[in-house]
Design brief:
alpha/beta; Rossmann fold; nine-stranded mixed beta sheet
Length: 327
């Protein structure tokens, strides 16, 4: 028999909570009920996502520490937490240059300190054809001399952490039909190079009209591979930073249960659309609730940034006029 916790056995196949994952309780996600965490935390003050969300980098690291502790609590023994993340370049206030933050290294350190085993790191590489020359890498074109070089980033890291040692004896007691539904297609694994430490996957392109427009979503192929590689049919996948809902969409398609946590209430409509959840479908098998810490976030932050930019540009214009004014 497959071992599941009581809350998992009787719970809806899809649970979505709008709130702050730092305040998540065992009443919402039980201890040890999750087979796989598949997520991408917000990038530290990313200008394309949540600019100015954190007062400073230490506050961001505090979020990661709580995330690691919650992951340790909800993950089953030996199960995997997969995190899509990367180092972040953030422009400093009142300065022209940006500062790069070592998010990959700090995330790894925090999860190891929480008691996770560092299992692996996969490098997700995006096609070079979708990358333009940025102001950062273009500096060397204007100044072709040493020390002006910076790279354009076409990769992200997929960090894999394991919650202790997995007991493979559990697989022997599973029903044959569960094992068969969970079988990995080894021909795809080899032909698409799942077994390699580098995954070449096209990113979600910034096309207008897409469901995730304005949201930094990862492609469905990433959770699809990880869910197949690390979960059994019927098990529970958890995304504590749900975003547009990609992880839960793929989990449902693959016959897994899904739990999502998302702070930004502005994404509720996007999640409903991606998961094809009309108000009528929110019933016994689907749960959607608002919890502590939920708030409208993205548009507010973007508006604040636009206001700051307009003030900054106004100051620059005043400074320029003063510099050309006669004495």
């Amino acid at each position: 028999m497959q071992t599941v916790s009581p809350i998992e056995k009787d719970s809806p196949s899809l649970r979505i909570f709008f709130g702050d994952v730092r305040k998540m309780s065992a009443n919402e996600v039980a201890n040890g009920e999750v087979a796989l965490i598949m997520t991408s935390p917000p990038y530290y003050n990313a200008p394309f996502d949540y600019p100015g969300l954190f007062a400073d980098y230490e506050e961001y690291l505090d979020l990661l520490r709580t995330f690691a502790a919650q992951s340790k609590r909800v993950l089953g023994k030996g199960r995997i937490c997969a995190i899509v993340t990367d180092d972040m370049l953030v422009r400093q206030e009142k300065r022209g240059r940006g500062k790069k933050y070592p998010i990959v290294a700090d995330t790894t350190k925090i999860f190891v300190e929480e008691g996770f085993q560092y299992r692996d790191r996969i490098t997700w590489v995006k096609p070079t054809g979708y990358t333009r020359i940025s102001r950062r890498s273009g500096v060397v074109l204007q100044h072709p001399y040493p020390m002006y070089f910076y790279t354009d980033n076409i990769q992200e890291s997929i960090l894999l952490f394991q919650n202790g040692t997995f007991d493979y004896e559990q697989l022997k007691s599973l029903r044959p039909e569960v094992l068969e539904k969970s079988r990995i297609d080894t021909s795809r694994l080899n032909s698409e190079n799942w077994n390699m430490s580098v995954w070449n996957i096209t990113n979600v392109l910034p096309k207008s009209g897409r469901v995730e427009e304005g949201v930094a979503a990862f492609p469905e192929e990433i959770p699809r591979r990880l869910i197949k590689l690390f979960t059994l049919s019927g098990e529970t996948v958890f995304d504590p930073f749900l975003g547009s809902g990609t992880t839960l969409k793929v989990a449902s398609e693959l016959g897994r249960k899904g739990i999502g946590y998302e702070m930004d209430l502005e994404l509720k409509k996007v999640i409903r659309k991606k998961l094809a959840l009309s108000r009528k479908r929110i019933g016994p098998s689907h749960l959607m609730e608002e919890k502590a810490g939920a708030r409208k976030l993205c548009k507010t932050l973007q508006t604040n940034i636009r206001r700051q930019r307009s003030v900054t540009m106004g100051d620059k214009r005043k400074s320029f006029r003063a510099s050309i004014s006669p004495l």
